[in-house]
Write a structure and sequence with these properties.
This protein is an alpha+beta fold. The protein contains 5 helices and 6 strands.
Length: about 120
């Protein structure tokens, strides 16, 4: 579940994180920060998964989840683990939508991470 937090810097208007135990954050963590009317959504897992088939599936599903949040007018990838979102969505809804994607693919993600570190 999403939890609103104090933004990490004074330039941000609003910040949300997925309320998880620390040990789950690498595979299921999501953050959203509003800055000057647009949102950035961070997904830590995407920094870990590189060059594997699951990466493309996750990217597609994360984008679709963000586009499906009420109030989103545009969403796209900014960087390997960052998406930008335009419109008037609720930050908690962004975090929860992406969190649902990560939960659905958590077992596959963990297996892929385990394989990559072996």
């Amino acid at each position: 579940m999403a939890k609103q937090i104090t933004p990490y810097d004074s330039d941000s208007d609003e910040a949300w994180i997925r309320d998880l135990p620390d040990e789950d954050y690498d595979t299921r963590g999501v953050s959203a920060t509003k800055f000057r009317g647009s949102w950035t959504v961070g997904v830590q897992l995407m920094e870990l998964l590189r060059g594997v088939p699951l990466e493309d599936e996750l990217r597609d599903k994360i984008l679709a989840a963000l586009q499906g949040v009420e109030g989103v007018t545009e969403a796209g990838e900014e960087d390997r683990e960052i998406w930008t979102v335009q419109g008037t969505p609720n930050g908690g809804a962004l975090v929860d939508a992406v969190g649902a994607v990560l939960d659905a693919l958590a077992a596959q993600s963990q297996a892929e991470i385990n394989r990559l570190v072996e």
